[in-house]
Design brief:
Length: about 280
């Protein structure tokens, strides 16, 4: 076991926001110092979010081999829970390497399950002092686990959708199309910026055609992503061609001096963009 900080690429921002308040409630209700959520990976359990009231026992990103974790016994238990007043005395936990390392006694853990009933992690609490947990305490933690499970699934769905929301289509050597669709928030803008720049650099792209026909503008704010993206592409030697500008986008374009000053070619449609580069669409 090692104290590695190896968070999954998923940020679990919704979990981190909601869990802080929930963990504080759990800590008060069960009179424990530490509460945390751990997600099961192929070989290890990784702490996604944690709360330590007076003393840090479990930090976020803490990782432990699955075989030597308390979580394995929680998941394998017929009731999918495990609790003991003192892990140093409990036959299941006393010989695990993690027990003397953590230096805790009271422990309670329950499983996290997805909508199909598959276990994917645990919600656990622990304390330096001995703690006797009642059946009511166990049921309370299970109810909190149900809520957190839904939040984690929402984060995972948002993360997976992020991959679909950066559609880059290679046209030919040195030419790719990026279609910006829907609403672009800060998280998605960061993902688009990173993905496009990596793609442009690794594929040695000379021209990026950015299609705005599916872009949705919210609260009259034109995405600053476009300005930063074009400028960044210019710095790495790629020329930007903007197409599919809708009347709505055009109105916001006029009101933004930064966008007006961009050194980017604008054309009406994809055919015009390809003609600008030197390609022509021809029917067979």
């Amino acid at each position: 076991m090692g104290k590695e900080y190896n968070l999954n690429s998923t940020d679990f921002q919704s979990l981190k926001t909601a869990s802080k308040k929930m963990f504080n409630m759990i800590s008060t209700r069960l009179n424990v110092n530490t509460a945390y959520v751990a997600k099961r990976g192929e070989t290890a359990m990784t702490v996604l979010s944690s709360f330590n009231k007076d003393e840090e026992i479990i930090p976020e990103g803490y990782e432990v081999d699955y075989g030597g974790s308390y979580c394995r016994h929680i998941i394998n238990h017929k009731n999918q829970e495990m609790h003991t007043p003192d892990v140093n005395e409990y036959h299941v936990t006393r010989d695990l390497a993690v027990t003397p390392e953590l230096g805790v006694k009271g422990y309670l853990g329950v499983t996290l399950t997805d909508t199909e009933g598959t276990v994917f992690g645990t919600l656990c609490v622990m304390d330096r002092e001995e703690k006797v947990f009642s059946d009511e305490d166990v049921e309370y933690l299970k109810s909190m686990a149900d809520l957190l499970s839904h939040i984690i699934e929402l984060d995972q769905t948002k993360f997976n959708m992020g991959f679909l929301n950066v559609p880059i289509l290679p046209i030919t050597n040195g030419v790719s199309i990026l279609t910006l669709q829907g609403v672009i928030d800060d998280d998605r803008a960061s993902k688009i910026m990173d993905t496009v720049l990596r793609h442009t650099s690794s594929k040695q792209i000379d021209y990026i055609i950015i299609d705005l026909s599916g872009l949705v503008i919210v609260d009259d704010v034109f995405p600053t992503l476009l300005v930063k993206l074009v400028q960044s592409l210019q710095l790495i030697g790629a020329e930007t061609i903007i197409t599919g500008i809708t009347p709505e986008a055009a109105l916001h374009n006029i009101s933004s001096q930064h966008i007006k000053d961009l050194k980017a070619k604008t054309v009406q449609n994809l055919e015009g963009a390809l003609e600008y580069i030197g390609f022509y669409l021809q029917e067979k």
